[in-house]
Amino acid sequence: MCDLNQAIPLRSDLFDYIYCCEGIEHLRNTHWPLSEFSRILKSTGLLILTLPNILNIGSRFKFLFSGRFLSFPHLYEVPSSKPGEHVHEHINPVSVSQLYYIAKKYNLSCEGFIPQPYEAKKVIRRIWFLPVLQTIGKIRQLLAKHPSKKLLWSILSSRECLLHDHVIVRFRKAGAPGGVA
């Protein structure tokens, strides 16, 4: 166990796999842990991150009408500190698109989502907006000139991004110079 706000006290190029479950949203600086994960991953190593999905349809509507995201209920008021009361500690609503660009800066390529089961009740409430948002995403994907923007729009218009409250995202560290990740 280590503090992800600090340098990870391990040598570089050590791990083939790193799994960070629901951690990024608890940190003030998202760049630091991603740079450290990249540093300690071996060439072509795999990073798997899970995080609250602030880009799903429900969270987008929540933000539109309340100014806050699902899984971040406290961001518009100071949390109570009564003894014994749970204090919500999600402090950094990171979107998949932000994560995509931050990871890219640290030599990590997004490979997309790891599928997970859908919650039927939530899908039924959100499915009405899915075709509209997917169509917008597909148009943006077709109009994108750069392959990385095409990939990003593919991710942002996917069912996983639009329907799940949490996402599991795969990143691969780029290989040796001249190699393909």
Write the layout of secondary structure elements.
Layout: E1 15-21, H1 31-40, E2 41-52, H2 57-66, H3 96-105, E3 108-113, H4 120-126, H5 130-143, H6 147-156, H7 159-163, E4 166-173
Parallel strand pairs: 1-2
Antiparallel strand pairs: 2-4, 3-4
Structural summary, described in words:
By secondary structure, the chain is an alpha+beta fold. Helices cover 36% and strands 18% of the residues. The protein has helices spanning 31-40, 57-66, 96-105, 120-126, 130-143, 147-156, 159-163, and strands at residues 15-21, 41-52, 108-113, 166-173. A 4-stranded mixed β-sheet has the order 1-2-4-3. The chain starts with 14 loop residues before the first strand and ends in an 8-residue tail after the last strand.
